[in-house]
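Kindly go through the following sequence and its backbone structure tokens. Advise at your convenience whether the structure tokens fit the sequence:

___
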Amino acid sequence: MSCGNHHETPCSDVLNEVWLFLDAECDPQRRAALQQHLDECSPCLEEYGLEEHLKLLLARKCGGDSATIEFKERLRASIRATVIEYKGGPPTE
């Protein structure tokens, strides 16, 4: 997607990273670049607004659920097994 105007950060990059921006998972420099683009670009700001509302809705509807300790342990074990298999054997230290 592009609004047709030139921006330092392309619209497609901003929209690809909007969830990182919403979750504050990008470094401060990248966050500033994305914020500047959103301040300048109405179509991207509108899309950001939709994503933000979706995130809030998901948090409100699903925010109270948390994984059990048993599930977390099974997930960690599965990840460890996958990493070991991918690396070709048990880790050496």
